[in-house]
Amino acid sequence: MLTQEKFAAFVGVTYARINRWENGRAKPSTEEPN
């Protein structure tokens, strides 16, 4: 199973950023991830 933590590590962002994307508090950027 792919968790938020694993996905975050895979795409090179923090777990918190993935969580914000999924909860609609932020949108993914096409800029360099941090």
Radius of gyration from CA coordinates: 9 Å
Low-confidence stretches: none
Total domain count:
1
Quick check: average pLDDT? 88
Helix content: 40-55%
State the oligomer. single chain
* Order of secondary-structure elements: HH
Number of helices: 2
Structural class: mainly alpha
Dominant shape: globular
Main β sheet profile: none
Strand content: under 5%
Whole-Å distance between the termini? 24 Å
DSSP E strands, number: 0
Task: Please explain how this structure is put together.
There is one protein chain. The protein has 34 residues and is mainly α. It has one domain. The protein has two helices and no strands. The chain has helices at residues 4-11, 15-22. Helix 1 (4-11) packs across helix 2. The longest helix has 8 residues, at 4-11. It is globular. This is Helix-turn-helix transcriptional regulator. Pfam families: HTH_3. InterPro entries: Cro/C1-type_HTH (IPR001387), Lambda_DNA-bd_dom_sf (IPR010982). Residues 2-31 form the HTH cro/C1-type domain.
Looking at this protein, list some descriptive labels:
0% strand, 34 residues, Helix-turn-helix transcriptional regulator, Cro/C1-type_HTH, globular, DNA binding, mainly alpha, single chain, Lambda_DNA-bd_dom_sf
Which helices and strands, and how do they pair?
Layout: H1 4-11, H2 15-22
Helix pairs in contact: 1-2
